[in-house]
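Folds abound. Consider this:
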Amino acid sequence: MGIARGLEYLHRGCNRRIIHFDVKPHNILLDENYCPKIADFGLAKLCNIKESIVSSMAGARGTIGFIAPEVFSRSFGVVSTKSDIYSFGMVLLEMVGGRQNVQKNPENSSQTNGGTLEIFEVTSTTEEIATKMALIGLWCIQMTPEARPSITKVIDMLERSVTELEIPPMQFLSCTPEQLIHSVNTTSGEDTQNLSFLSHVNK
């Protein structure tokens, strides 16, 4: 909730909208009271308060795994504050899954592949929170920006009970991986990381 309210301030509370472009766990800091603070604005861009769309942007920006599809290829839609929503959704799903990006001890990988909920006592309350975060996360990572909720809607969803939330629609791609790769290379420059992202999306 604290991260969402921080994004709401960036998207709606400032004189000019701010799109962070690098929302990820490493850029969310906790103070002494464990209140989250969004950090590292090196990739951020300003846009007009009446609009949330970035009219021009050279190349993709952000961290692989958290970058919205439209940042790579405009065929998915326009780059806007909804791009931060996608990243926020990936943060939620990573929190629910409890998986580390890098395994420090490959020999014990069979013990670390599961979500962290397995090593805690799962109560009805924690299960409901995890389910709510997963549902909202899936809403946030819809492939097209217009299908994602605004940050204000996300906050409203976080404040509701899980029984009040709708199930997000199934995702699908209407073009082939080859078409995606061509679109990415012509829109944001050739980059081997782009291909890694596309292979992840198509799985």
Q: What stands out?
A: Residues 2-170 form a domain with the Transferase(Phosphotransferase); domain 1 fold (CATH 1.10.510.10).
